[in-house]
Write a structure and sequence with these properties.
This protein is of the alpha/beta class. The protein has helices at 2-7, 23-28, 39-46, 62-73, 78-99, 115-123, 138-148, 159-165, 171-175, 184-194, 236-248, 263-266, 282-291, 306-313, 342-354, 356-370, 375-387; strands at residues 14-16, 57-59, 106-110, 127-131, 178-181, 201-203, 223-227, 254-258, 274-278, 294-297, 318-321, 334-337. It has two domains: 2-17 and 60-207 and 375-387, Rossmann fold; 210-373, Glycogen Phosphorylase B (Rossmann fold, 3-Layer(aba) Sandwich). Helices cover 44% and strands 13% of the residues. β5, α10 and β6 (201-203) form a beta-alpha-beta unit. The protein is globular and about 65 Å long.
Length: 390
């Protein structure tokens, strides 16, 4: 995104915690090739600032070093970990404040992170633009879901209370002037549940890279793909129930789940109809898309799920919920089904797989639809949105 701004002459500076080709990050990244190197180093090695914005980039690794030491020496329970994360975000924001704002008139943040930076920007008269990349109601939605399915995932701390405790509550809502939303679902959530005015919001859908259009879909009939972490937020329990309903009706489809999964979920009896593949390298995940007959994502909370853009570009029909924030249109590229409705999910899956003419029509429509949401089109939409800000 900063490269998009630079190409249009709109970038004053890019601030980030660390990059694999700058400063301390450039010294650490080469160690990623060593045996037993932590995955974090591999991520760092791939996190490189484009050459054309290097001179405008400042990294702030020291708060991260302190965070890492605290993580290594401190308690590993979720409450302590979340407190450390909040303090790290604040420390990072204060470090950025010390660097200053240059001649910037606006600041672009991700979900209100680095609260002190947003507060100071607001105090100095800058306009604050925040990208809300996931439903802001996600914590509430998951709290409700854990009450309904208490044995699926461990209890989580009261994150809102911890934010209040460390003085980090509502920075996003207090300081943001304009909200960039990747989907109508995110915008509606802000307006309905957080008193954000419509004129403060703009919807800018995400995009998909060109490699996904080159994936030749050669489906195995009845093979259904779910890509993402197998968790309540992504509706894995509703997929498991839908698979069971279909099996009871004599439809023994193959449900393949590609993504991280906890052993406590993978070994559940009610997930017996799901085949868990674990986290796959990119070449293997593309092979899964190539051979899948249908892509399914019954999420309860997303921003705009990247996996659906990829599925459409690869020529897969999709069954998803509105909460995925998808650009999917009902009965054109697939089916939109209600959240928390395993019966509707099962019916939509059966409908598409059993009607091969409809399935193939949806697949073609999906690829055509995906061409409207390339990363180039994303850049155009983002720039249009930013230029419209007052």
């Amino acid at each position: 995104m900063p490269a998009i701004l630079e190409d249009e002459g709109m970038l004053e500076a890019f601030y980030t915690n660390i990059a694999g080709n700058l400063g301390l990050g450039s010294l650490l990244a080469p160690w990623s090739s060593l045996p037993f190197a932590p995955h974090s180093l591999s991520r760092l090695a791939n996190r490189k600032v484009p050459e054309r914005i290097r001179k405008k980039t400042s990294t702030f690794p020291l708060p991260g070093v302190a965070f890492g030491v605290g993580k290594f020496l401190g308690s590993q329970d979720r409450t302590a970990s979340f407190r450390r994360h909040l303090r790290y975000s604040d420390d990072l924001g204060r470090a950025m404040v010390r660097k200053g704002f240059g001649d910037a008139t606006h600041i672009y943040s991700m979900l209100g992170e680095c609260g002190p930076l947003l507060a100071m920007a607001k105090a100095r008269g800058l306009k604050v633009v925040s990208e809300v990349y996931i439903l802001l109601s996600t914590e509430r939605i998951l709290a409700e879901e854990r009450l309904l399915f208490p044995d699926w995932e461990p209890d989580i701390p009261d994150y809102a209370a911890i934010r209040r405790e460390v003085g980090d509550d509502d920075a996003l809502l207090r300081f943001t002037d304009y909200f960039i939303c990747p989907s109508e679902a995110v915008r509606d959530d802000l307006m309905e549940n957080f008193a954000v005015r419509q004129e403060q919001t703009t919807v800018v859908p995400y995009g998909v890279g060109p490699a996904w259009f080159a994936v030749p879909n050669e489906p195995i009939p009845g093979r259904i793909l779910f890509a993402g972490t197998a968790e309540l937020r992504k509706g894995i329990h509703y997929l498991a129930r839908a698979a069971a309903l279909l099996a009871e009706g004599g439809h023994h489809y193959e449900f393949r789940v590609a993504g991280n999964v906890a052993p406590s979920i993978a070994t559940r009896e009610d997930c017996r109809h799901l085949r868990f593949l674990g986290r796959l390298p990119r070449d293997q995940i593309r092979e899964e898309f190539r051979r899948a007959d249908l892509f399914v994502l019954p999420s309860l909370a997303e921003g705009s799920a990247e996996a659906i853009y990829e599925a459409l570009a690869a020529g897969l029909p999709v069954v998803a919920t509105r909460s995925t924030g998808s650009v999917l249109r009902d009965r054109q590229e697939g089916r939109l089904v209600p959240e928390r409705d395993a019966e509707a999910l099962a019916e939509a899956i059966e409908e598409i797989i059993s009607d091969r003419v409809m399935r193939d029509r949806m697949a073609r429509s999906g690829k055509e639809r995906a061409y409207e949401f390339t990363w180039e089109r994303y850049g155009e939409r983002l720039l249009t949105a930013l230029r419209s800000l007052k």
